[in-house]
Amino acid sequence: MKLFDAHCDVLLKLWLDRSLSFYDDPSLHVTWKSLQQAKGKVQCFAIYIPESVYPESRFTVALEMVDLFFEEIIGKFSNMKFVRSKSDISSLGANEIGAMLTLEGCDAIGESLVKLKTLLRLGVSSVGLTWNHANSVADGAWEERGAGLSDFGKQVVHTLNEAKCWVDVSHLSKKGFWDAIEIADYPIASHSNAYALCAHPRNLRAEQICALIKKNGVIGITFVPSFVRQDHHPATIADVLRHLDYICSLGGSRHVGFGSDFDGIDETVVGLENFQCYANLINELQKHYSEADVQRFLFDNFYERLPR
């Protein structure tokens, strides 16, 4: 089974602690070794700028994370290949792993389309418009104001359309989501779950899921425990599968995948403690779905929606 994981935060951890090794550091959820063992095929690596970074330094930090991506992930492992398109992925050898660069939140670009275009030219293939709070593009899911896309934000989406780049609606406010879904050619939600099962502001309502399906997008079910279940019981793989079942019940069997958020979380779902534990998820999926469905969820649905 090939795996396409639409979101992890390894670059943030590597940036925060330069002593960490991507090879097999036990403090990382995603490592070269775990990708090898779990047969990961494509892993998306997010550029996420912590809010503690001063605004004037955020673009520089984004460039530092791009450098870490090429030096510590692509540069040190001969079978880690930089990918941006379907053809790049289809050209991967049997033992090669594709590494895709994404941007989580447009805080790094401020109000500059030049900075956005620079990151796209450096290889960013998916752009999340916000994190949880407001920036110059839109309001995030935790912003009390709940505003939608700014005029600049609409320019950002049009720029991403022209570049054939995914517009990632995870983290957007509700109004921001609807503004983006109206004008984005290639929308996805890289790491969000179903609000009907867990009423967290980062999760998607049924009508949002249906809108993404209608726009031929993909929803990456995420392993953030607080997005998986609301009560104080530990989140389990069975709970993750309930979100998958729900999205499929809305007609999303060809529009759902996984975006773990590994290395962006402190707590983990029981049985999904790191990337190697994808094997546990696959075992459970195979009990309930056909092999063709399981392969679609794990890989095909995201792969087939790549704009390039």
UniProtKB/TrEMBL annotation:
Q: What molecular function does GO assign, one term?
A: metallodipeptidase activity
* Any one GO BP annotation for this protein: proteolysis
UniProt xrefs under InterPro entries: Metal_Hydrolase, Pept_M19
Q: Which domain of life is it from?
A: Bacteria
- Which PROSITE patterns does the UniProt record give? RENAL_DIPEPTIDASE_2 (PS51365)
| UniProt-recorded name of the protein | Membrane dipeptidase
Organism name? Paranoxybacillus vitaminiphilus
